[in-house]
């Protein structure tokens, strides 16, 4: 379609007809991917995609419609598909799909959406890493204005089958897709709502990659990479540090919208909204300056095998605190005099904030530097 002027016009005209009839705000182009996979035109796709967007822009400007596109994230892939500077001038929002960076197609375990390089990435060339940090560095460096970028955040995890149940860290050997969820029903894929329920009802060992700033978990031969409210808030805060103020979600129906896991309804969406709120100043994550940057919680000894290091425990309404005071401290605030608890500020329907008191799992302390419950030896806290 994109290679033919008449086909492009037909597609644009028919899109406009549908958008106008049903009152949509615009159109998101999701071409996966120009010049790759099943292409028959090869590198000509790059210019054809740009031309398609240019012609859409001319038609949409007349009706004040939005034009967005979902694009490949990492340098290795994106550099083959787009003239970044050219497409950026025609798009209102560039939705960068910063997820599916690793999955069951890999021979070893890896994070679905790591913020920074993590465990097992020692010695890797930074520009070649599949991380949000490097993806955004590429897109901004290639000419995409930060104010047009929306960072993709996954509301799902990727699952692997371990080759050896006793070798269960990041970059452990794997034999393809792992467990499927009861609703998404796809091996290698679990909605957050599905997995948070498993964590409540089954005995999983949870770990937190302090370098990549994301959790993972394993049980027998099953290994899962996922995001929770903590890791998502850190992703948003990092995006904000680059001048990015938009988040794209894939996909909203796998949030815990019924609140069955004990964190309230839509905990991931709430985490995004709270982190985007400019009234908060959270601890900005750094790939180099964090005191935890050279430490990883990959110990698989029995003493830590049942500890949860990043998933938020069950929150309860905070007693005898003033929301206006507590919630000025950030998204997550330490509880004074109690190393094992913290406050999570949740937005209410009227726009005000309610501090919920959260207690870490047994044996863990709240770590304000990584915004997660952590092992006491890694936390500086005096009760």
Automatic annotation (TrEMBL):
PROSITE patterns: CHIT_BIND_II, GH18_1, GH18_2. The keyword Ligase does not apply. Residues 324-383 form the Chitin-binding type-2 domain. Its EC number is 3.2.1.14. Gene3D superfamilies: 3.10.50.10, Chitin binding domain, Glycosidases. The keyword Lipid metabolism does not apply. It catalyses: Random endo-hydrolysis of N-acetyl-beta-D-glucosaminide (1->4)-beta-linkages in chitin and chitodextrins. Pfam families: CBM_14, Glyco_hydro_18. InterPro entries: Chitin-bd_dom, Chitin-bd_dom_sf, Chitinase_II/V-like_cat, Chitinase_insertion_sf, GH, Glyco_hydro18_cat, Glyco_hydro_18_chit_AS, Glycosyl_Hydrlase_18. Residues 285-318 have a biased composition (Low complexity). One of its GO terms (biological process) is polysaccharide catabolic process. Belongs to the glycosyl hydrolase 18 family. Chitinase class II subfamily. This is chitinase. It comes from Chrysodeixis includens.
């Amino acid at each position: 379609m994109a290679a033919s002027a008449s086909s492009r016009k037909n597609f644009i005209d028919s899109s406009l007809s549908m958008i106008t009839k049903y009152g949509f705000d615009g159109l998101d182009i999701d071409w996966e991917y120009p010049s790759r996979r099943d292409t028959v035109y090869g590198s000509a796709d790059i210019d054809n995609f740009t031309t398609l967007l240019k012609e859409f822009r001319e038609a949409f400007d007349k009706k004040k419609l939005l034009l967005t596109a979902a694009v490949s994230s990492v340098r290795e892939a994106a550099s083959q598909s787009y003239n970044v500077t050219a497409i950026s001038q025609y798009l209102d929002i560039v939705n960068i799909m910063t997820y599916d960076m690793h999955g069951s197609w890999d021979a070893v375990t890896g994070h679905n959406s790591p913020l920074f390089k993590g465990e097992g990435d020692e010695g890797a060339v930074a520009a070649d890493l599949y991380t949000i940090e490097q993806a955004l560095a590429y897109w901004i460096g290639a000419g995409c204005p930060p104010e047009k970028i929306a960072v993709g955040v996954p509301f799902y995890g990727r699952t692997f089958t371990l080759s050896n149940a006793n070798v269960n860290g990041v970059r452990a050997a794997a034999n393809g897709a792992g467990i499927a969820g009861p609703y998404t029903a796809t091996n290698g894929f679990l909605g957050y709502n599905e997995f948070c329920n498993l964590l409540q009802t089954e005995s999983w060992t949870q770990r937190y990659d302090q370098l990549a700033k994301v959790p993972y978990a394993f049980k027998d031969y099953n290994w899962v990479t996922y995001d929770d409210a903590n890791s998502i808030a850190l992703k948003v805060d990092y995006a904000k540090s680059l001048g990015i103020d938009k988040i794209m979600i894939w996909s909203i129906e796998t949030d815990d919208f019924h609140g069955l896991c004990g964190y309230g309804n839509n905990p991931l969406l709430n985490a995004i909204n709270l982190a985007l709120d400019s009234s908060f100043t959270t601890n900005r994550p750094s790939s180099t300056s964090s005191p935890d940057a050279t430490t990883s919680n990959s110990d698989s000894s029995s003493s830590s095998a049942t500890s949860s290091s990043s998933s938020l425990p069950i929150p309860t309404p905070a007693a005898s605190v003033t929301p206006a005071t507590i919630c000025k401290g950030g998204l997550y605030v330490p509880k004074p005099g109690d190393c094992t608890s913290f406050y999570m500020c949740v937005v209410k329907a009227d726009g005000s904030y309610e501090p919920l008191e959260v207690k870490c799992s047994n044996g863990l302390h709240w770590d304000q530097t990584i915004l997660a419950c952590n092992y006491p030896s890694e936390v500086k806290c005096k009760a």
